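Re-run with default settings, no changes from the original entry. Doing this only to confirm the output is reproducible before filing.
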Amino acid sequence: MSLVEFELPEELQNVTADEFCRQMLARIPKNIDTTEGGFVFDMLKPPALLGAELVQFWLVLGLQNAFHMWATGTWLDYCAADCGLSRREATYAYGNVIVTADPFLTFPKGFVFSVPSENSVAAIDFETVEDATVPETGEATIRVKSVLAGKIGNVRADTISIMKNPVDNVYKITNTATSGGTEIESDDSLRARIDDYYAGRQASFVGNKKDYVRWAKMVDGVGFAQCIPLYFGENSVKLVIADANGQPATKEILNAVETFIFGTGHKDLNRLAPIGVAKWEVAAPTLNAINYSLDVKISADTTLETVEENIRTKLDTFYLTLADDENCFGTLRYVKVSEQILNTAGVEDFKHLRVNGGLENVNFAADEMPITGTIELTSYG
């Protein structure tokens, strides 16, 4: 359910400072001067202003925060708690650091590698998740985790190159791209999950498709979940998970989803999945790159490069919603793509949109997920 515009209750629409003042003056004895500018009038005007503020702002804020469709921040968290839900926390990015060094050199758990500070931008730190020793080959691949949660930990390959506390006999440091760092869940996302709860999707808890998707989306970092029943035959299920950035979920997020839903095995009494499910898999989606080309009219205060990045972000966010309607999942609709681009910051208008070179919908498999490939923009106007 989209955010419904709040309307002030009719009983409060005419409650103003002037009305407060008029009602208070009407209660003053007739033999006392109440003309504007007089002592009594001047003494009553400030509390009238405060009364109007109480009704027009604070009471309205209280009414809004009592309902999840208007509540924000902590108050929305309270509404979610009434449903047994909680806001997904920010998650950490993970990746691998490749270190060339003398054999048998040991890096203890918590040892910090960094992306160097540049142009007044602070260094981005990553800590090892376990003890690691350089083998005889002189090259070690070490699993690392960002020190700070959030998207800040998602860095490109070959950017981690220094140690926070240098040690001798290390000759080269590089890395694979890190991923999985997501921001704390937005109000809109949490509000949508509360909508799902009140829509009755919470009522089954028997392990249907919507149950698995809802359970998966309760795990920190999850942005997209698709359930494929009978994937391995009878009594089996496959969950396809992407993170809140629209990227394939890291093994850490996948493990968290699997543990949350399936517990430690069939005998785990705390598992959410039905005991009859004999085989399951929690996996990241196979990416299906979608390429776009179009002519675009951009705003005067932006650049073509910025618009391209805005379109990419808009589309990657849109892909996360494709599993919300199971009747549409498996199809990237041309008209929906057009709508997203038209509503992108910096885009005034566009024409000649091609999706994978054509003007038609793009189909993808149940265990696939679209991802934006190339975007070819030509400016006009």
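The two ends are 37 Å apart (CA to CA). The mean pLDDT is 89.
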